[in-house]
Amino acid sequence: MKKAKRSNEFDFLAGPRSRWKEFVTVWQVMRQFIHGFRKLHFIGPCVTIFGSARFAEDHEYYKLTREFAGELGKLGFAIMSGGGPGVMEAANRGAFEVGAKSIGCNIVLPMEQHANPYVDIDITFKHFFVRKVLLIKYSSAFVIMPGGGGTLDELFETFTLMQTGKIQGFPIVIFGVEYWKNIREQFELMKEEGTISPEDLDLVFFTDSIEEGIAHIREKLHRDFKVEKPKASWILGEKSA
What class, spelled out in words, does domain 8-225 have in CATH? Predict the structure, then answer.
């Protein structure tokens, strides 16, 4: 079996290195952020959809994600995903098919992950933490489809940012009641043990219904804040998307 090549992140997270290497990494991270900011600044109201890369085209969750993304796209939302296969592809495909903006924030992995063919805007990052910031920064709502460790990481990162007041109370729709049953029970346990507050449970919405998920997103966005599209700056030579 071919041995996977070590990633830049492997060396970066392995501990102290020379000051020059650390400086170069900081410079690379800054370049990735600036590139992402420039590419995504004008995408308008956006929903990020998280989920597993491992569901094939004929899987139920792939089909449901594709439908969900399409319905959100019809409302005028851009759809953003991690840019890879599985649920990510389904999300971009659903947006692409209804003419909505389709964005993929891809990641360089030791076993290469290629962008799916349904993205209008494709950005590739070297570091997971840069990618995750961009997936959250430009979205007004989040849909958590069934997934694995990466999806759990994205769910709890988003939840924690809202719980601690780092971002506004954007809706988090967790799709797949049976799939996420243990996670829902864990939320309840954390509430009972006092490790989260009772009102923190209002930050997440579990459902099996696309219609309910969309209704929840619309109600929360209408009630809590108005989503505005950024204006272009002629000083920076920018044009609205």
Answer: alpha beta
